[in-house]
Design brief:
Order of helices and strands: EEEHHEEHHEHEHEEHEEHEEEEHHHEHEH
Number of helices: 13
Shape: globular
Length: 424
């Protein structure tokens, strides 16, 4: 009788804006277990405590027989959510969240330091937040600056925070050369910045206290993570150049795998490295929020099947809730186009779905015009992925296969990242 191999499991944890999720997969990437934790509403300085409690609460909820066979863990967090720590790893000030724009107060410092056309030239970039921290008195005690995912992983391995080239992109890290640029290395506070690895790289085993408290294997590795949006892309299973993921949430977000990186910062288009490929994309202000403004979820479910997707409505909408668009048209004054409104709700809904689909098609066309790999297939995530009539409308216009992602949870994507650490 041959020796029976013990099963191997991999844990991914996603920290979003309102809660955290955990997912355990096996070696074949089958989802075995998942759980979520909602964050209570607390003032900013208390957020690290909430995040820490949520992390360890999720670990505790994993069934013991699974926990004892987890080989690796990866965590994703919201992009550009950052923390400042002292030498003992204690959080010195409240974390600055992904959408915090107080970096506008140090725009002059940012402009003097980084190239004018660099991605970090934004009030919400990680670097802008670091420069803002630098103006506060607590900065004198700082020893580490890191992202949410870096810090959470450090709670598991007990060492200094280590980042990945997805989280570090908006800090100024160069994913093409895989190094911090000289204009960052010359900064007086450069030693505060985290080392940067390929996402999914094994950093260190779990600390002995975590192993003993939660009965994980002592060999379980903590891996560098990623951002929540890239973890959601990894969950889709898209791996080939030309494959894309459209997220049909409250806004329309496109991500396309490309052989080469493309950038158009005015439209919010930039590229993340993904192994030897590049993940490029953009986000429109249009999306599902427009549909929910006019229809309830129940009405959307009831009206959609009455649409004939092969008979165009003839309506030419650009469905925005308020003026202003960033991608595929970069025009802060672009007006919504929602007239004429037919008396028939079915036709009106069809016009909205067709308008959103045209924006999606224009978005992929723009990415390709900028030099990205031509579109070959679209996987769909978000609430709109459930609407099969919309899927047919999209496939008719995009002229490539369109299907729902089998998995769209970021925690599942992070679990896949943890699994990949075994083959790096």
């Amino acid at each position: 009788m041959g020796k029976v191999e013990a099963p191997q499991f991999f844990l991914g944890i996603d920290f979003g804006t309102s809660g955290a999720r955990a997912a355990v997969i096996d070696a074949k990437q089958e989802l075995i277990w998942q759980e979520k934790a909602q964050f209570p509403q607390v003032p900013g300085p208390e957020l690290p405590t909430v995040w820490r409690q949520s992390l360890f609460s999720l670990l505790e909820q994993i069934p013991a027989e699974l926990r004892s066979q987890i080989r690796a863990i990866a965590i994703d967090g919201t992009s550009s959510t950052v923390l400042l720590l002292d030498g003992q790893g204690k959080v010195l000030m409240e974390p600055l969240l992904y959408n915090d724009d107080r970096g506008r107060e140090v725009k002059h410092l940012l402009s003097a330091m980084a190239p004018a056309d660099h991605l970090v030239q934004s009030a919400t970039s990680s670097l802008a937040k670091l420069l803002w921290y630098g103006q506060q008195s607590e900065f004198q005690q700082a020893r580490y600056f890191c992202h949410q995912a870096d810090w959470l992983a450090s709670l598991l391995h007990g060492g200094r925070p280590v980042s990945d080239y997805h989280n570090a992109l908006k800090l100024g890290y160069d994913p093409e050369t895989l190094t911090y640029p000289n204009w960052l290395k010359n900064a007086p506070w450069f030693s505060l910045l985290p080392p940067v690895t390929i996402p999914g790289t094994a950093i260190a085993p779990l600390s002995s206290s975590v192993v003993n408290s939660y009965k994980f294997p002592s060999t379980c590795q903590v891996c560098s993570g990623t951002t929540d949006s890239i973890a959601a892309f990894l969950a889709s299973g898209a791996t080939q150049p030309g494959e894309a993921v459209t997220s049909l949430g409250s806004t329309l977000v496109l991500k396309l795998l490309s052989v080469k990186p493309v950038t158009n910062l005015a439209s919010g288009v930039y590229s993340h490295r993904l192994g030897n490929l590049w993940l490029t994309g953009g986000a429109s202000n249009a999306g599902g929020a427009v549909l929910q403004h006019f229809f309830s979820l129940e009405q959307l479910r009831e009206l959609s099947p009455k649409i004939d997707p092969n008979q165009p409505s003839g309506l030419d909408y650009y469905p925005l809730l308020q003026p202003g668009e960033r991608f595929p048209i970069n025009d802060p004054n672009l007006l919504p186009k929602l007239e004429p409104r037919p008396a028939d709700d079915v036709t009106f809904l069809q016009g909205l779905l067709e308008g959103l689909t045209r924006i999606e098609a224009q978005g992929y066309a723009k990415l390709q015009a900028l030099g990205a790999t031509p579109l070959t297939k679209v996987l769909t995530a978000g609430g709109g992925a459930e609407n099969l009539i919309w899927q047919t409308i999209r496939q008719n216009l995009l002229q490539v296969p369109v299907q729902k992602s089998i998995q769209s949870e970021a925690a599942y994507g992070s679990a896949c990242l943890a699994r990949s650490s075994q083959s790096l």
